[in-house]
Design a protein that fits this description.
Layout (H helix, E strand, L loop, with lengths): L2 H34 L25 H12 L11 H22 L4 E4 L6 H11 L2 E4 L8
Helix pairs in contact: 3-4
C-alpha cells in the first residue's frame, strides 16, 4: 500500500466519524425540542426519552428509570387489559381498518376479505354495512396482539 492510499483511507475514516458525530448531535438537539413540545422521542437506542423518570437512578431500578414517567402519566383504556407500545400500535391498526374501509368505499370496492377476531370487528362490520360492502371473515389471524 502506498502512503497516499493509507493517508486517504485515514482521512475518509476521520470524515465518517465527524459526520456521525454531527448527525448524533443534530439528532439530540431535535429530540430535545420534540420532548419540550410533548412529543414522544426515541433516543439513540430506541428508548422513548419522554417516558424516562430521571429522578430514579438506573442502577437502583432500571425499569422505573426507563419508563417511570410513562407509567405515572398513562392510563390503561377501560376496554383493554394492558397498554403499551405494541398495544397502542394494535389499537391504531384497528382504527385504520375503519379508515381503510371508508377509502375503499370511495374507490368503488364492493367486497373485502379480512381475518376477523379484532376487538373492533363490530365497528368494521357496521362500517361495511354503511357502505354496502360485502365482508368475508377468514378466521385466520397472522399476528397476535
Amino acid at each position: 500500500m502506498s502512503p497516499n492510499h493509507v493517508r486517504r483511507s485515514m482521512l475518509c475514516g476521520v470524515a465518517v466519524v465527524f459526520a456521525l458525530v454531527a448527525v448524533s448531535v443534530t439528532g439530540l438537539h431535535s429530540a430535545h425540542a420534540q420532548a419540550k413540545a410533548g412529543k414522544a422521542v426515541l433516543g439513540p437506542w430506541g428508548v422513548e426519552l419522554t417516558a424516562m423518570d430521571k429522578a430514579i437512578a438506573p442502577g437502583d431500578d432500571f425499569f422505573r428509570y426507563a419508563g417511570g414517567t410513562w407509567m405515572k402519566t398513562t392510563q390503561i383504556p377501560a376496554d383493554r387489559a394492558r397498554w403499551g407500545a405494541f398495544s397502542i400500535l394494535g389499537a391504531k391498526s384497528e382504527d385504520d381498518v375503519r379508515a381503510a374501509l371508508d377509502e375503499a368505499a370511495k374507490a368503488g370496492v364492493t367486497a373485502v376479505i379480512q381475518p376477523g377476531g379484532s376487538v373492533k370487528d363490530e365497528d368494521v362490520i357496521k362500517a361495511a354495512d354503511e357502505h354496502g360492502i360485502a365482508m368475508i371473515f377468514t378466521k385466520m389471524r397472522h399476528f397476535r396482539h
